[in-house]
Amino acid sequence: MSFRRPVQLGVMLIALVVSVSMALAQEQGQQGPTKQPMGNGMSNEQMQMMHQQMVRGSQTSDTTTPTMPGQDAFGAIQEIVRMLEADPNTDWSKVNLEALRQHLIDMNEVTLKAEAVAKPVDGGIEVTVTGAGRTAQAIQRMAPAHAHEIEQSHLNGWSAKTKPLPDGVVLTVTSSDPQQVQRIRGLGFIGVMVSGSHHQMHHLAMAKGEFVHLQ
């Protein structure tokens, strides 16, 4: 009995989903996408919402294997490992996952622990980014490297530079485009730091032993 009941419930759920889908298709073919009540007193919109909820329920009710890694950095490294394992050309003698782990620690320090004080300057912003201990070191590794990447890629037509401080850096990001100036100021420090699509590829290159952040 314990086996038959879940099977019966599953069959009933599938039948209900199919029935609702057919009713939706028939009603839309006759009336178009309107909100007129159907024979059961429910509008198309209500039926569609119920259908979507049932489909979502059927998709999530059968989750038997966890998918979340439980920690962001762990998940990022796990993704890279899967890519390395799937690539037959991976040179395992050069793989350096510890370098990637240290970089992810830097990312955590800069994102969550750095003090960032921004002020508007002509054409953009100037941000004093500081921290103590490992946070300061992480800032001094990441901010200049990202500024260099902005300059090299001409990201959004921005210009970026850094000036070292004993406990961090001063990051200046500017543009000659008035719209980009407003964008830069709206993004602020962390928005500028996450801009661009090079981060993920750098992580892969770092894991392969092909890339090291500028010092």
Summary tags:
2 domains, 7 helices, 215 residues, alpha+beta, four-stranded antiparallel sheet, extended
| SS field, number of helical segments | 7
Q: Please give the largest β-sheet.
A: 4 strands, antiparallel
Based on secondary structure, the structural category is alpha+beta
If you compute it from the alpha carbons, what radius of gyration comes out, rounded to the nearest whole angstrom?
26 Å
Helices, strands, pairings?
Layout: H1 4-31, H2 44-60, H3 72-86, H4 97-112, E1 115-121, E2 124-130, H5 134-153, E3 159-165, E4 168-174, H6 178-194, H7 199-207
Antiparallel strand pairs: 1-2, 2-4, 3-4
Helix pairs in contact: 1-2, 4-5, 4-7
Question: Can you walk me through this structure?
Answer:
α1 (4-31) runs antiparallel to α2 (44-60) and α4 crosses α5 (134-153). The protein has 7 helices and 4 strands. It has helices at 4-31, 44-60, 72-86, 97-112, 134-153, 178-194, 199-207; strands at 115-121, 124-130, 159-165, 168-174. The protein has 2 domains: 4-60, no CATH class; 72-207, no CATH class. With 215 residues, it is α+β, with helices and mostly antiparallel strands.
Short description:
The chain is an alpha+beta fold.
